[in-house]
Amino acid sequence: MNPNSASWQTQFSQGFGGSIDPSGFYLGLLILALLLTIFILAYRGFQKRRGQNLLLSKRHSQQESSLNLVQQTALHDLIDEFRRREPAAQAVPAAVLEKFAEFFYARKSRLKASGKDPQTLMGSHYPLHTGDSVEVDLIEAKGVSLVSSVVTGLTRKGFTVLVPEPLASTLTKGQAMLVNYASGTHFLQGLTTVVEIQPAGEILLRPLERLRLTRERRWPRLPVQTIAGSLTETRSGTRRPARVLDISHDGARVRVSSPLEKKAVHQLTFEAEAGGKRWVFGPLECICRQVFAGEPGGIEYGMGFLYLDTESSRKLSSFLKASVQPWEKSP
Fold it and tell me: With CB atoms 3.0 to 4.6 Å apart as the test, which of 9, 82, 219, 256 could cross-link to 249 if both were Cys?
């Protein structure tokens, strides 16, 4: 041991009484901060890797299908066939259709129902009441005539509706027709036949059968003052004048002078005034859902909108709200 150096006991006892070297103190703090930084970075890296692993595991589980290879192949073939038959489905990504098909297949047992279930459901959830507005579709050789009507009474044999007397005089007992009515946001359609033709245009109809929910129109229609517009077929670019007769969130009824291609996608454009404001719509993509026998010299079509963007949907809602008030005041 160096004789000139003090013993460790002496140095230790003198250390508390002497001054501390500042450079050593700051060096210790620097080392401590460095160690703390390394620990934080290592912990963040661990958390990041853990999150990535969880995300990959979640994506993998989402991509796993409940269907086997044979079922998936059949599913793809069915989707291709459906998209060829339904023009509206061509705008839906195949992946979305596949997900829905798998979702539907896993819950297909919910569709099981006895023969009496539909009538029971109609009576409890979708009953007809006196005073309800209905639409009667008369299927004739010249086409489908749609007549707005109202339920005037309910009997044990069925229900009565009021139609124009000239039309009532052309009806016969046993004639089949479709009756449409709204219940909340649901639009229902049922088959019935004429039981009796009563005075003043009142007809007695059998209780509705084969009742079904339909997307022909899920929202009440708003009559408009014959708005001028145009329909353009997206495939050929053919443009023709059109008159908008009524409109809803789901579609519009238009009148044109020449037949439309039923399986084609069209673009509807029109302008209208409501609430002291000029509204410009279009192009709104739509397809033909129903054909009506309109006035001579024209053909009326029920057009269904295809995937309105957010701006168009909001604008349409505002337009309907601005337009409905005058119609509520009119007698």
Answer: 219
Residue 47 lies in a domain: no
Using DSSP, state whether 64 is helix, strand or coil: coil
Residues 236 and 314 in one domain: yes
Total H helices, total E strands in the chain: 7, 13
> Which tokens go with 118?
């539909």
Residues 101 and 131 in one domain: no
Q: Distance between CA 131 and CA 151 in Å, rounded?
A: 5
Please say whether the beta carbons of 286 and 251 come within 8 A. Answer: yes
* Residues spanned by the domain of 88: 69-107
pTM given for the model: 0.43
CA pair distance 110, 212, nearest whole angstrom: 16
Instruction: Give Cα 298 distance to the centre of its chain.
Output: 30
pLDDT digits (tens, 9 = 90+) for 63-122: 455 677 888 888 888 888 887 777 667 667 778 888 888 888 888 887 776 655 666 666
Q: Report the phi/psi class of residue 330: left, alpha or beta, with left for phi > 0 and alpha for psi in -120 to 50.
A: beta
Whether the Cβ atoms of residue 99 and residue 81 lie closer than 8 Å to each other? no
Chain CA centroid to CA 262, Å? 21
Q: What share of the chain is helix, strand, coil (3-state, %, to 5)?
A: 40, 35, 30
Residue 276, phi-psi category: left (phi > 0), alpha (psi -120 to 50), beta (remainder):
left
Same-domain status, 79 and 96:
yes
Displacement of CA 319 from its chain's centroid (Å):
19
Region class of 236: left (phi > 0), else alpha (psi between -120 and 50), else beta: alpha
